[in-house]
Write a structure and sequence with these properties.
single chain, alpha+beta, 6-stranded mixed beta sheet, 16 helices
């Protein structure tokens, strides 16, 4: 017996009564995205998840934004100027913009938004992105002046990042720390419902300042962790867009004449295996270097990513401004065994290997890493973490000595498009959890000082020289096993337009439309 869902029954009834034949009736444009991991919070200032912030672009906007090629564009700011000393940024704001709750967007709203993450007492994840702000002044309702503590040459990039999107001051006051469950922005869509681990739904905001947009009525971001299921829901039409695509199924999906498979090789999503450098045996550089030699990255790219990945040749991926080519580390298991012997681990050792993700590709990666390390005597017990476990066990650890993490497979995109965000949040002493993501607890004063010096200079040649030296030092210290950058491969319905995956794996859907 065929069972009709209520929506199908309604449609059938409409047809029976001739409603759909009316020229006034028009089917709503409801788009579904299938994404690979669950959302953690809807507060863009309190997450390091690219997906959380990508989804946030539906209901939030910033002064600036990155386009699909990571070029900076004006959004809520109509113009800006920077003082000669690099300390003062003055922004002219777009007039007649309302938040979804009716609150006016103005200079006071900007001040409230940036004062919040810049205050260390708020303990927000993006503090390190905004702690360079000294103070924010309201010049007039549509002019705001941001003064920095010191020159910070990546500041415009930081403001174009989706972590810098504007939240309604009234909503911040009403919800306080629970704002992560109640997003209220100026974006093209307004929040409808969030069921963690299942889906998030937004609908068209009728009061959106950019008239004529959005062109669709709703978007549902559905969590589909299983690779095969994510591919299937696009083929059946249950979803119009899926990312990432199961690499092993890309060729088959291309044969479907209703779908477009897009392979972007400009990805800056680096995959790496971090090592807790504060505990034995990973406190010994020889052990860390041995692990780099023990892993066949070319084979990893083929086995886990079906060839849709490139072996990394530097700490920061090619395509990011100031990235420096240093490698890659060659595959040399004999060298790995020799270094382990020199470090006193001739018979190897046992340890834990956690994956930050539970999607199908990540499972393949950690299984491959487990096999590779076993060949040089390193026995690992593998655990694949769900998002809640990742937050609790890794990101919310208050003291380095309490960290239980040992080997940790993760990924990161330098999503401001500048080397600063590929280095400072991951490899400086100030970025230990819970502040940011230095899960290797790597600390090198020359690296810390070099990154600070690079950010304080506006001389490009000098900045390049400093960043090169910093990246060479990190590469040789090997707090990570440097693995691959994965291609951004996604599939969408041919009827869906105006949607892209950006190089940092975020989404751009500023011109989204669905042809009926």
């Amino acid at each position: 017996m065929k069972v009709l869902h209520p929506t199908k029954l309604m449609a059938a009834a409409a047809v029976a009564f001739g409603v759909l034949a009316s020229p006034l009736a028009q089917a709503s444009k409801d788009v579904t995205f299938a994404v690979s991991i669950a959302l953690e919070t809807l507060d863009p200032y309190n997450t390091n998840s690219t997906l959380n912030q990508a989804v946030g672009k539906a209901y939030y906007e910033g002064l600036l934004e990155f386009d699909k090629d990571l070029k900076i564009q004006k959004v809520l700011a109509t113009d800006y100027e920077v003082s000669d000393d690099g300390l003062v940024y003055t922004f002219k704001l777009r007039p007649n913009v309302k938040f979804h709750d009716g609150t006016d967007f103005n200079a006071e709203a900007v001040k409230i938004n940036f004062d919040r993450p810049a205050n260390p007492d708020n303990r927000l994840s993006r503090y390190i992105q905004f702690n360079v702000i000294d103070h924010v002044d309201v010049v007039d309702p549509l002019t705001v002046k941001i003064t920095l503590k010191k020159p910070f040459s990546a500041f415009l990039n930081a403001l174009a990042h989706p972590a810098a999107m504007m939240i309604s001051p009234a909503a911040l006051k009403k919800y306080g720390k629970d704002i992560g469950f109640h997003p209220v922005g100026t974006g093209p869509f307004e929040f409808v419902e969030w069921k963690p681990a299942e889906y998030l739904k937004v609908k068209k905001f009728d009061g959106y300042w950019n008239q004529g947009k959005p062109k669709v009525d709703s978007i549902t971001f559905r969590t589909v962790t299983d690779n095969n299921t994510r591919a299937a829901v696009v083929q059946t039409g249950e979803a119009h867009f899926a990312f990432p695509v199961p690499f092993e199924q890309a060729a088959r999906l291309e044969k479907n004449d209703k779908l477009d498979v897009v392979d972007h090789k400009n990805s800056i999503m680096a995959r790496y295996l971090s090592m807790n450098t504060m505990v034995k045996p990973f406190d010994d550089p020889k052990v860390r270097q041995a692990i780099n030699y023990a892993i066949n990255k070319e084979a990893l790219a083929k086995v886990a990513f079906n060839g849709y990945a490139t072996v990394v040749d530097g700490v920061v991926p090619a395509g990011v401004d100031y990235a420096h080519k240093t490698g890659p580390w060659p595959y040399d298991p004999a060298k790995a065994r020799q270094l382990l012997k020199e470090a006193g681990y001739e018979k190897g050792f046992e340890t834990q290997l956690w994956s930050a993700y539970n999607d199908g590709t990540s499972v393949k990666v950690v299984q491959f890493l487990q096999q590779q390390l076993a060949q040089v005597g390193i026995k690992t017990s593998v655990e694949v973490l769900e998002s809640g476990q990742r937050v609790q066990r890794v990101q919310q650890v208050q003291k380095p000595e309490d960290a239980k993490v040992r080997l940790y497979y993760a990924g990161w995109s330098s999503s401001t498009g500048e080397a600063d965000w590929g280095l400072r949040p991951l490899l400086t002493t100030g970025a230990f959890p819970p502040v940011l993501n230095n899960v290797s607890y790597y600390s090198n004063k020359s690296v810390d000082d070099g990154i600070a010096e690079a950010l304080a200079t506006v001389d490009r040649d000098k900045k390049t020289e400093i960043y090169n030296k910093v990246q060479e030092t990190i590469w040789n210290d090997a707090p990570w096993a440097f693995l691959v950058t994965q291609n951004n491969v996604y599939v969408k319905s041919k009827n869906l337009t105006g949607v892209y995956v950006e190089p940092d794996t975020s989404f751009w859907f500023g011109d989204i439309d669905l042809k009926q």
